[in-house]
Design a protein that fits this description.
This is Helicase. It comes from Azospirillum cavernae. One of its GO terms (molecular function) is helicase activity. It contains 23 helices and 23 strands. With 768 residues, the chain is of the alpha/beta class. The protein folds into four domains: 163 residues, no CATH class; 152 residues, P-loop containing nucleotide triphosphate hydrolases (Rossmann fold, 3-Layer(aba) Sandwich), CATH 3.40.50; 140 residues, P-loop containing nucleotide triphosphate hydrolases (Rossmann fold); 96 residues, no CATH class. The strands form six sheets. It has an eight-stranded mixed β-sheet with strand order 7-6-8-5-9-10-4-11, sandwiched between helices. It has a six-stranded parallel β-sheet with strand order 12-19-16-13-15-14, sandwiched between helices. Helix 2 packs antiparallel against helix 3 and helix 18 crosses helix 20. The longest helix has 32 residues.
Length: 768
């Protein structure tokens, strides 16, 4: 049936109609009233009508109105339905005139429906409820911003939603906005309760003083630290703050050569000189409660470091001294200026120039062309040891410096290079701070590094800091910075020829101290240190204009390890700061075990791994194990200074640490480093191609072929990481079989040696 039809459809009996006729007639009526927003569901019986409405509402507090469009259901119109059937069964049938007549009746019925006012009332009620709920968030609620958000929500891509759909969308948008506001209120409450929102006020002694801030900036080898130490020695008392124990030790010596008795304080060492008015310490050990005559804060550019920058912020903000001298690179200027402005203190920047020129060597350096006085830089222990092996094979004597070595061993290795016992130094960027070395040329083996989070390009500050170690004044006329063959010199050229780029975010890093931790725990009503630190890391200081929260992930990992111990929160907080490698699960288990014993009142014995290293020199495997053992003893000493009763074997700890350091020094001084299987500890021949021994490899193959499901390890049930000579028959090895990293390619540790070794049927690296 069409609108033009005025007689029954072909074949129909006049005076009769069926369901198809009814639906066609309803659609004809709907076409008449569609311009008024009226629609019909003709397939339902009886037919159900709906109406599109436009409703203008005011956003409370926003001085803005929104035009809402939505559809409401009116339901059936029984009178229209009855009249329609009458027209369909009449002699003349149903056509356009009848559709227009019923359309007027439908329009009048729909527009006068009480459902319209009820629908608008529901919308108004929702906005009233929204205003009431938002009022509880005070200034945290931003009605203008929410109005903008609602403007985007109600568009629906040009469609007109049903009323309930619109209300659901409004509620969802409001819930998201209120959650953000609630989180902001929660953050503000936590910041206020903890005191982190007013961090500077926690240093009352420093805030009560009139302090003079002076920033000595310049490249390495410019004399800025020497000048600052001269100024410090003129004061009646003072402190020198360094990033490393090595630098703190040098600071102590520098002050004593200037006639000033000086104590040394580090995390695991105390050398207190009676009557000394000066103290040299690592920066985390700063004493902000004592009044000093002056203070030198070294390597101030570290204030921008996400992991340790909080310690420099604490020192700059908290040291109570009338004169604060900061030394470092110009990269620190934006950070220190922002901090000085927040403290309301004047900052004087004094620039130093390098005493000897530093030049870029454009020609790449093939490894055979490394010469006496060079420092070759890599960024992992593996690469350092690979370069050491390659350079020893070319007739050099080599000293090595990398982060896993203790300060004592680093100093011994630096001394070997300084006195000429070693003609080449291979090091990580650990030489970038604190070591005065007679380096003629710095050669970067790569311009990329893994920073604990990702593999990335070296930034300009890092290149300047490392490259600046070349050309020590008084030892060389100039310094040169180059790269190994296969690397690009462009990053080095840019770093050494362009000024520092200001940081995108010059806010200083801060970290929650014990008072902050306790206050957050009370606010959260929790005794979990990990939860407190996680909340602080995720929620606090998001909108602060001066400070931002340091990366707390390592501290959270340590907190998780000690939270099970029956110890007060303040004790667990100290334990969580213990200098362990949180990436090593063995270290976390060790710390957790110490904490459990401490909670039970049981004294912890000093780690005894040193007893396994009574021989003169060791293998590559033993060297790595000895380095880990030193770290464990260092952590024990750190705790023993703070909890004497719980860690009573400090003297034995220091004795074992000294023994291990001597063992490591002797091993590194050897012309060649003996190799051992990392699984069983058996010594390997110099030309053995693979990392593991033949027996371990064969045992693993046998186990795989036999379909065994035993985990890799010793068959007698003991640890697979056994000591040399402690290898039972048939010991298994882990699921790897890598070639020894003797080949250089583009860098150390890439590719197998060209010399043979092992069973004749082995075909390169195998991963069973």
């Amino acid at each position: 049936m069409t609108d033009e039809t005025s007689t029954p459809k072909s074949g129909a009996t006049p005076g009769t109609a069926d369901e198809y006729d009814r639906r066609d007639a309803l659609r004809a009526i709907a076409a008449v009233v569609r311009g008024d927003g009226i629609e019909v569901d003709a397939d339902s019986t009886p037919a159900r009508w709906s109406l599109s409405l436009t409703h203008i509402v005011a956003i409370p507090g926003a001085d803005r109105t929104l035009k809402l469009r939505f559809r409401i259901a009116l339901g059936p119109l029984p009178e229209i339905e009855a009249e329609l059937w009458g027209m369909l069964t009449a002699e003349e049938g149903f056509g356009r005139p009848q559709a227009k007549t019923l359309g007027k009746r439908v329009k009048a019925a729909c527009l006068s429906s009480s459902a319209i006012e009820k629908a608008k009332g529901r919308v108004d009620a929702w906005f009233a409820s929204m205003a009431q709920r938002a009022a509880g968030f005070g200034d945290a609620w931003r009605p203008k911003g929410f109005a903008e958000e609602l403007g985007r929500v109600i568009g629906f891509g040009g469609r007109i939603p049903r009323l309930q759909t619109l209300l659901d969308a409004l509620e969802e948008a409001f819930s998201s906005a209120i959650a953000r506001s609630g989180l902001k209120v929660r953050r503000e409450r936590l910041e206020n309760a903890s005191g982190m929102g007013v961090y500077l006020d926690s240093f009352t002694t420093a805030r009560a003083m009139i302090r003079r801030l002076r920033l000595f900036v310049g490249p390495t080898n410019s004399g800025k630290t020497h000048s600052a130490m001269d100024q410090l020695a003129l004061a009646e008392s003072g402190c020198y703050l360094a990033p490393l124990r090595l630098l703190a030790l040098e600071g102590q010596e520098a002050l004593e050569t200037r006639g000033r008795p000086c104590s040394l304080v580090t995390g695991e060492e105390r050398d207190v000189r009676p009557g000394a008015g000066f103290t040299s310490s690592t920066i985390e050990m700063v004493n902000t409660s004592r009044i000093w005559g002056a203070c030198v804060i070294d390597e101030i550019q570290m204030i921008g470091d996400p992991d340790r920058g909080w310690a420099w912020t604490q020192a700059v903000a908290g040291v109570a001294a009338p004169e604060i001298l900061m030394t470092g690179s110009a990269d620190a200027i934006p950070y220190v200026k922002r901090l000085a402005d927040a403290m309301g203190e004047e900052l004087e920047v004094i620039e130093f120039t390098r005493k000897s020129p530093l030049r870029v060597q454009e020609e790449r350096v093939p490894l055979p062309d490394v010469r006496r006085g060079d420092a070759v830089i890599a960024f992992s222990r593996k690469d350092v040891m690979g370069l050491r092996h390659d350079l020893l094979a070319r007739g050099h004597t080599v000293a090595v410096i990398y982060g896993a070595l203790s300060p004592e061993v680093r100093r011994a290795e630096a001394r070997r290079f300084r006195d000429g016992t070693a003609d080449v130094l291979v090091a990580t960027d650990a030489i970038g701070m604190g070591l005065n070395l007679p380096v003629a040329r710095v050669v970067l083996s790569t311009t990329r590094k893994y920073d604990g989070r990702e593999e990335r390009e070296l930034n300009s500050s890092e290149i300047r800091q490392i490259g600046g170690r070349a050309g020590r004044f008084g030892m060389h006329e100039e310094g040169r910075v180059a790269v190994l063959e296969g690397e690009s010199i462009n990053p080095v050229r840019r770093a050494l020829t362009t000024p520092p780029v200001p940081p995108e975010d010059p806010r200083s890093w801060i970290s929650p101290n014990l008072s902050h931790v306790q206050a957050i725990a009370i606010e959260l009503d929790t005794n979990s240190l990990a939860k407190v630190l996680r909340t602080a890391g995720q929620e606090l200081l998001r909108a602060n204009q001066t400070f931002r929260m340091t990366d707390l992930e390592q501290r959270i990992q340590a907190a998780t390890a000690v939270d099970k111990a029956a110890l007060p929160l303040e004790v667990r907080d100290i334990l969580a700061r213990c200098p362990i490698d949180t990436r090593d699960q063995n270290n976390l288990r060790l710390l957790g075990g110490w904490a459990m014993n401490q909670g039970k009142g049981i004294g912890n014995a000093a780690p005894d791994a040193a007893e396994r290293f009574r021989h003169h020199v060791g293998t590559d495997v033993e060297l790595e194990k000895a380095e880990r053992a030193v770290k464990e003893l260092t952590a024990y000493a750190w705790l023993a200074y703070r909890f004497t009763d719980a860690y009573p074997e400090m003297d034995l700890c220091q004795e074992r640490r000294a023994h291990l350091n001597a063992f490591i020094e002797r091993t590194l001084a050897e012309r060649s480093l003996a190799r051992a299987c990392p699984v069983c500890g058996a010594r390997l021949k110099a030309n053995h191609r693979f990392r593991v021994c033949d027996a371990c490899y064969g045992s693993r193959l046998e186990e795989r072929q036999g379909g065994g499901n035993r985990p890799a390890g010793r068959r007698d049930g003991r640890s697979a990481a056994a000591m040399p000579g402690d290898k039972p028959p048939g010991a298994a090895h882990p699921s790897f079989h890598h070639p020894l990293p003797h080949g250089r390619g583009k860098g150390p540790g890439r590719g197998p040696s060209k010399t043979g070794g092992g069973p004749p049927k082995r075909r390169g690296p195998t991963a069973p």
